[in-house]
Each structure stands twice: as C-alpha cells, then as structure tokens.
Write the structure tokens for this entry.
Amino acid sequence: MREVAIVGAKTTEFGELWEKSLRDIVVEAGVGAIEDAGISGEDIDMMYVGNMSGGKFIEQEHLGALIADYSGLAKGLNVPSTRVEAACASGGLALRQAIQAVASGYSNVAIAAGAEKMTDIDGSGVTDALAAAADREWEGIQGATFPGIYAMIAKLHMAQYGTTSEQLAAVAVKNHENGMNNPIAQFKSKLTIEQVLKSIMVSDPLHILDCSPVSDGAAAVIVVPADEAHKYTDTPIYIKASAQASDTIALHDRRDITTLDASVAAGKRAYEMAGLTPKDINFVEVHDCFTIAEICAIEDLGFFEKGKGGPASLAGETALNAKISVNPSGGLKSTGHPVGATGVKQAVEAVHQLRGEAGKRQVNGAKYGMTHNVGGSGATAVVHIFSNER
Amino acid sequence: MTVPRFWREQQSRYNLVGSHCKTCGNYYYPIRNLCPECRRDGDMEQYKFKGTGKIVTCTVTHTTSDEFNDLVPYALAIVELDEGAKLTTQIVDEPEKVAIGKRVHSVFRKLGSDGDSGIIYYGTKFELDKE
C-alpha cells in the first residue's frame, strides 16, 4: 500500500446558489482543485463524486458520467468516474475511495469531489429526501424526520448525562463564531445562546438554530502518491489514516442510542492506523448536522468522556485554539451542509489549516487534523487524519 | 409506497410480528431472515410480540414533510418491547404527556395514504398505558 497525499483543494461558496446548477458547482470546485495542484485535467486518471440524492434533489442520477462530461474528461479522455453514496457521508467516502485507488496503485492522480444541490426542491421535499438516509420502512413511515431522530438522541443524552439546551446552543454559537471568518460559509453571522433557544422548535429539544441548513455547494481534492507529492506542491498534506465503519441503519437498533458506535470504531481504526491518540490531534472537523451530533462526536472520538461533551462545549473548551479546536471552519451549522459535499469540504478545511492558510480561523501550530463525516443517524462514519508532516 | 411494497410487510405492520432467534434468544422487529448476532448459525422463527413496552426516548415533532403535516405536533418515540426488541413509533397521546420511561401498548392505526384516491396504509402505533 502506498502512502498518499493531497496536493490540491477547493470548496465553492456554500449557500442558496440559485443561479448555479449541480454541474456548475462541481466543475467550479474541480477546476479550483486542479489549479491549486498546478496540474492539468489530462493528468487525472480516476474520478469520484460523493452525492447523496441527485435523484431526489434534481432528478438526476448517473452523476459520475455527468461530472466527467462537464469537466471535459469524458469525451476523448474517457476518464473513469464513479458516484459514491452513503447519505451525508458520501463526500467522506468519495475521498476514501480516491485514497484507496491511489494507495493500491490503480490510480496515480485521483480527484475526489463532493456535491449537492438541495435548493431546487421545496422544504418538504428536502425533509423527505433526507429521511431516506434513515430506515424508510421502519422509521420514516412513522413520521420520523432527521431532526426527529437526532432529537431522540438529544433527549436521551439529556436524561442520561444532564446535557442542557444551553449546552446544545453553545455548539451552534461557537460554530457561527468560527464561520464568520470562513469566506465560503453560508451564515457569517454571530449567534447568541438566547437566539438559539428562542428560535422555533423543529423537534423537541432541537430548535431550528440547532440544525444545519439546507445548502448547495461542492468541494474537491486531488490525491496523489506521497512519494510524488513534491512534484506538484511544496506543501503536500499527507493522509495519516482513512477509516470507515458501519452500524445499524435504524437508530432504535443501536447498542447505545447516545453513542454512535460507527464513529467510535472509525475513530479507533484511524488512531491506530496513524499511531496517534486524541491528545495528538490539534483540530477536528466533526459532523455537526445538529448540535447534539457535535456533542456525541467529540465524546465518541475520545476528546471528552461520554456525557462531558455538553459542559465542555458550554465552557468553551472546543472553541478555536482552546483545548481542542472543534470545527474551525464553522462546521455544518455555519458553513452549510450540502450533504454530499460536506465530507470533502472538511478535508479542504484540513488542508487549509495544515498549510497555515486559514486566516482568522487558523489553528495555531496545527500539525494533525481529523475529519469526521457521518451518514444517516450514524449508520456510516468516515474518519480521516491529515498531517503536514510525512 | 406501492401496494406490493406495503403489502409484503403486512404481518409486521398489522400484527407486530418479528423474529426470534432460537440460537441466541434475541428478538427482532420487524421480521429478519438472518440473525444479526448469530448470522448463519442462527435459527429464526416468526414471533408475534405482546405489544407492551416502555419509552426509551422520545421527541415532539413540529416541522415535518407534507405527508405528516396534518399530524403536527406529534410525539415520536423509540419503544423497547418487553421481549427486548426496539422500534420507532408515533405515540398517539397528547405530546406533552409522552416521556422517557412511560409504559405503552400497541394500537392499530392509520399510518398514511397515497393522496385522496390512493390506498390507505394501516399499521401499529403505540399509546400510553392508563396511569
């Protein structure tokens, strides 16, 4: 197995991009990543695109070929292109596919993109499309929405560990604080705990401001063998670990409803692969699709003891350059959550942080960064560890 | 949902039928053909649950998709059946009465319909036991 590095990275603006189509944004991200790597499209020999639900959101499947076509890599060059789906973890999985392709020797220059266009259908349609990430037959049919499912995690976390609505709100407030300094963020606005608590209730105890938004956006990275990385850039970012784990599709079948065992397993595998522990990690981009999800994530990945994630969040221990910088990008909450794009966007943020080019949201002396991307309510988890040192 | 897709799960939806593995003793809802614990060593038989259990966690949903809009606010819960299997269900009581730990029992209810002229789906929801 070859070691692997990222040599190019780009995220489009995230938000309600009315004037742009899915193919527009994915090409924008892809071209940006190619330019960042200083390569030409012809150098790419493998393409992966993470996308959760083109079929539901824009009634378009067969996205691998579509993207290759509109990137100018289909006709003539015939570059193989594969769409990867694992609900909201599609992007992280696309990255993992590209890493595996390069590590195995099947590919020398792979591009991993993630993209979602969610605002071409109405809110009810989005809710229904996202509900497909859970068990349609045995959760969705009872009216379980995604906020509803995470609300049940939150409710039990509160009952078991005394987690409060203020602690949940603190996650959103901190992520907006970070997102204000991220040029691509959908919401660059300051938020207060009071505003979160006064916002409308979606599914008790989750308010609308506990939820990540509906977004359009795309991101892409260029993956090459580590031995060749310096051919492309002076600042390659090395993949220290790529791990993935599965759990039951329905929340009700989990071993423990307030622990995402897939996150725990993927985290453990990643730490082992990299030879690192949570103490070594300088920042982590976690999958905060809801505020409770960030609290579970920082516990499940070993940064805080189970049940201590809420108090730690309220105490500011997860703020930029505090005990552990959690979601320096602004997370899904402030940056936006175009579902298929998120996992790749997290990797792009890791690249910016580790190159030291994150501006006002820079994590001081960042050497090891982790990304954590979740599909559904925790049926898939993907964890990557990156470093600027080989 | 098409007729065959709904119809093939009728036993589980109408009568709360799941599976019991004679090897490990675990109960599952809905019916599973392969025991996730024992896999090929498992010995699955169909089992009709008693329909009693308690609320493990719950929420009141205020914002939902068009299909469930007429019901908001509605209570949703994960119920642990007395045999040990868990499932996700609506609780058909006033939402504010629904709480973790409360005892519930199954009831036969409408689950949804395909518009005004399509088929109506029935199945199992739960309600709180009288205190």
Summary: Chain A has 13 helices and twelve strands. The first strand of chain A starts at residue 4 and ends at 11. The two ends of chain A are 15 Å apart (CA to CA).
